[in-house]
Amino acid sequence: MRFAKVWQRLLGVEGTVVERVVFDEEAGAIVASVCPRKGATRRCGMCGRRCSWWDRGEGRRRWRALDLGAVMAFLEADAPRVRCPEHGVVVVAFPWARHRARHTRTFEDQCAWLAAHCSRSAVEELMRIAWRTVGAIVTRVVADAHARHDPLAGLVRIGIDEVSYKRGHRYLIVIVDHDSGRLVWAKAGRDKKTLQVFFDTLGTERCAAITEVSSDGAEWIGDVVADRCPNATRVMDAFHVVGWATDALDEVRREVWNDARRTLGNQVLADRLKRCRYALWKNPEHLTKRQRGKLAWVAYTNARLYRAYLLKEELRLAIRLKGDDGIRLLAHWLNWASHCRIPAFVELARKIRRHRQAIEDALRSGTSNALIESTNTKIRVLTRVAFGFRSPEALIAMAMLAVGGCCPELPGRPLHPEFAAA
Ligand SMILES: [Zn+2]
């Protein structure tokens, strides 16, 4: 293997000319001067079209590459501008980097992979970059993945959900493909207009192909779906129904706790009740031995709270069962809840009656509730991870990496198709 070839491999720039490599004492880094091969010069940075030369731009430019051993590495090259008939005067395309990036493609891919698999501090330390830069990188990587594969292709059953991502009630609308379990679209907002952007992007033909849309029962979502998806059944997102029951249970727990504190003046009892929150909230199959003990304590000391717990669990079971069994159990639950004399659950029974048709449709549908639940949970966890990103776009890109199937392979395994072809 020739020496230049070794450098191409090391720097991850197969198909690019490596002119020379020096150690820059000042930067404490290896700097490789490179230039695109003949056929790859003077292309528009936006569309890749061959264009006429415009000017030298800002002269030489550096891109951070993956470290070589423990030493930082940079690529350096001229960055002239061309005039594209469509995009005007733009900096040329560089085969080793995405447009507007200051890091190489392999550096960005590795960063994105790490962001999807490791903690924020691990990514920052290992790659020696700020979290905000990670946000910008992830956004570019995802845009690139979407340009190669349209996430909206072939949608049949979708879920529409609202996720709060910041205090002060800021929301994202997220669209999930129920067949793949993937996040396919998201945008900041929580109104008809934002949702209409999704259906505009999808287009009339693909809207007509959608057969099932699940949501949390919000009227404004229902209105837009009825208007745009003529062939779709609207079903209730089961994840939310269980969420309502959990909220009602929490309300009862707070009431019982307040009673113990104020009316009975029993601080010991109140404290003990307070510590039962997780035992009541978690799915019973995931309880630890200690938490099972707490639940037992609730059962023999507080009949009302335990009844509320059983109501939550029976509703969850109906949702889990699905089909005719689920529908029968839901009917039983409605009857029980309506007469349980616990205001939070009487109210919940009313709410569920209002949405009964859509819930039963969800129980009849073949969509996996477990899949919906896990995607929803992952997106909610991500909103916390992505704190510190400046824009909701970076958060969305982060979610696309983790649950949208956009995470790139680690560099070098396998070879990037562009380089493999060259
Ligand atoms: Zn162009």
Structural notes for this entry:
Helix 4 packs across helix 16, helix 7 runs antiparallel to helix 8 and helix 12 crosses helix 13. The chain has a 5-stranded mixed beta sheet, with helices on both faces. It contains 17 helices and 12 strands. It is 51% helix and 19% strand. The longest helix has 26 residues. The two termini are 17 Å apart. The chain has 422 residues and is of the alpha/beta class. It is elongated and about 80 Å long. The structure holds zinc ion. Zinc ion binds next to loops. The site of zinc ion has 7 residues, from loops.
Structural class: alpha/beta
| Number of β-strand runs | 12
Work out the radius of gyration: 28 Å
Form type: elongated
Residue share in β-strands: 15-25%
Helix percent band: 40-55%
Distance between the termini: 17 Å
Q: Residue-averaged pLDDT, rounded?
A: 89
How would you spell out the order of helices and strands? HEEEEEEEHHHEEEHEHEHHHHHHHHHHH
Q: pLDDT under 50 segments (min length 5)?
A: none
How many DSSP H or I helices? 17
Taking strands numbered 1, 2, ... along the chain, how are they ordered across the largest sheet? 10-9-8-11-12
Biggest sheet record: 5 strands, mixed
Which small-molecule species are bound to the chains here? zinc ion
